Amino acid sequence: MSASITQNSNILKNKSVGYYNNSSPLKFFYSNIDLTKDVKPNDVVVKVKAAALNPVDALLYSLANPIPVLNKFNNKLNIFGCDYAGEIVEVGSNIQKLKNYKVGDLVNGVLGVNPLQLSKQGSLTYYLIIDVLKNKENISKLSTLPLDISKNLEFHDKFVIASSWPLVFQTAYLMLYGHGQVPSTLKPGATILVFGAATAVGNALVQIAKNELKVSKVVGTCSSYSIENRDTQIHSAFDHLIPYDDPTTSVKDHILEYIKKESINHNGKFDLIADCVGSSDVVDIPEQVLNNNKTSHYATLVGDNKFNYNSATLIDFMKQWKIAKRIILRRKCLNNYSYSLDMLRGKEDAMILANKMISQGTYIPRIDSVYDLDNFQAAVTRLSSSKAKGKVVITIDD
Ligand SMILES: NC(=O)c1ccc[n+]([C@@H]2O[C@H](COP(=O)([O-])OP(=O)(O)OC[C@H]3O[C@@H](n4cnc5c(N)ncnc54)[C@H](OP(=O)(O)O)[C@@H]3O)[C@@H](O)[C@H]2O)c1
Predict the structure, then answer these.
(1) Which pLDDT value is given to residue 92?
(2) 352 is a domain residue
(3) Coil, strand or helix at 109
(4) 259 CB near ligand 1 (under 6 Å)
(5) Whose CA is nearest to atom 10 of ligand 1?
(6) How many C-beta atoms surround the C-beta of residue 370 within 10 A?
(7) What is the DSSP string of 9-38?
(8) Nearest alpha carbon, ligand 1 atom 33
(9) Which residue ranges does the record assign to the Enoyl reductase (ER) domain (predicted)?
(10) Does 179 score more than 90 pLDDT?
(11) Does the residue 354 lie in any domain?
């Protein structure tokens, strides 16, 4: 910590990666944090050791002030990144309310994402000031993987691992637990169809589904390259993989063929569709793919189309108007196959479950690559390629 503190030990020298709007480049910004003035009673100050990137970071950057004339009125700084892991270096004065946190604690979490916020705090930074009471669903003391597992991983640094999962685990948890299907439907015997078996959310989802909920089958879609190299590309818990780039057979036909083949044993249909990429392959034929209109659910994180993270515009979102119609009309109470567009919202139970599974080794986050802060641009390029297998993580050392 000493290198960041000026002669006045109440001042932390901060360095962050940020942007003003989508026409200004990502670059370093420098500031001072005055511990006597900037830290409020419910805050902790976290010295960030690692931060993981998510597609939403690139999306927020693409969408920052899409109407150039507004840049004149809103020139607020946004810092890139949401997921972080690090060490508490300062605790606010509200000792009673912050009794679970002390200087030296190792923590991880995800910062809230609000596209309407004019100025955004981000995790690509030396120091974060976090109001613990407002963020209690999204912050935890970090757990570590059992040594016999972590020693065999290519990227085993505890901060790298701890920064890699909060957003994707929370999201996978929401898709599985957020629709009233646990414990009644998603239990042994249940089946799940995941669009995006190679995504980081899909990776977390299959491990929760198989290791915690003990569902029987999880089927996923991915590229034929990922199928050919599944040992290194895809989590082994997937029972069956369907290529989305087969020139001879569409994804829809592959899925219907799988259901037909499986129907010899049971009806072959799925209890949950978890769309982690943006797919419209079977969205209009829920009755052919989902098991039961009262208990099954179709959840998407993205909508009918995959976004290009680098060039997304508001028009891309407006083109997805059919989603709104489905959300209104497809409901269990209307005797229809329920449908949702799931948006991340923190759940303390999800953080607790993730930490439990990590300490047991039943959830192993997948890390695609690790960069240092000076190479953040290469990390953002890797994220935006949409080919990362697991999380792109940046280590931060001042
Ligand atoms: N709504 C929310 O709150 C929320 C929260 C989290 C994430 N999301 C969204 O969910 C999506 C997944 O996020 P993530 O971080 O898990 O992504 P990610 O890890 O960056 O996904 C990368 C993977 O996507 C796979 N992929 C690319 N195109 C595909 C396609 N057409 N079909 C199937 N797989 C494809 C690629 O594997 P292959 O090589 O096999 O193609 C690649 O390895 C993103 O669009 C993200 O914005 C939304």
Answers:
(1) 97
(2) no
(3) strand
(4) no
(5) 276
(6) 19
(7) TTEEEEEEEEESSTTSPPEEEEEEEETTTT
(8) 196
(9) 21-394
(10) yes
(11) no
CATH number at residue 219: 3.40.50.720
Strands 127-131 and 43-53: antiparallel
Query: Does the pLDDT at position 366 exceed 70?
Result: yes
Q: What is the largest CA-CA distance in the chain?
A: 75
Q: Which amino acid is at 83?
A: D
Instruction: Report yes or no: 38 and 129 within 8 Å, Cβ to Cβ.
Output: yes
- One-letter amino acid at 5 equals I
Determine contact, residues 48/85, Cβ cutoff 8 Å. Answer: yes
> Tokens for 39?
């830290």
Centre of ligand 1 to C-alpha 61, Å, is 17
Residue 4: pLDDT band (50, 70, 90) is very low
Q: Are residues 18 and 117 in the same domain?
A: yes
C-beta 244 within 6 A of ligand 1 = yes
**Residue with CA at minimum distance from ligand 1 atom 23:** 199
Q: Write out the residue range of the structural domain in which residue 131 sits.
A: 2-165+365-395
Q: Are 241 and 197 in contact (CB under 8 A)?
A: yes
Q: How many CB atoms lie within 10 A of CB 122?
A: 22
Q: Please, are residues 125 and 91 in contact by the beta-carbon 8 Å criterion?
A: no
* Number of H-type helices and E-type strands within the chain: 13, 16
136 shares its domain with 253: no
Residue 21 pLDDT > 90: no
